[in-house]
Design brief:
single chain; about 80 residues; alpha+beta; globular
Length: about 80
């Protein structure tokens, strides 16, 4: 299995997904390690706030949703999958 530079953040996101869906579905959130920032309606506001908080480092940002699209290295969509509640 190929390791991602965001393995810790993805795991933290998935661990918190059920609770985040309750009040923040559709909003954007940033993770650095296991810590997450505030929730935002606008992805750009989320990005700006995350960089203000953690500095110019790689940050995992994702929209809180039950459905995700997976992309290959070439940027082409490979698949869409849904999480069931």
């Amino acid at each position: 299995m190929t390791e991602s530079m965001f393995d810790i953040e993805i795991e933290a996101f998935m661990d918190n997904l059920d609770s985040m869906l309750g009040t923040n579905e559709g909003k954007y959130v940033a993770f650095k390690g296991k810590e997450h920032g505030d929730f935002w309606e606008c992805e750009l506001d989320c990005v700006k706030t995350a960089y203000d908080k953690w500095g110019n480092v790689p940050i995992f940002i994702r929209q809180v949703s039950r459905e995700y699209q997976i992309y290959g290295k070439n940027g082409r969509s490979l698949d869409i999958f849904s999480l069931t509640a």
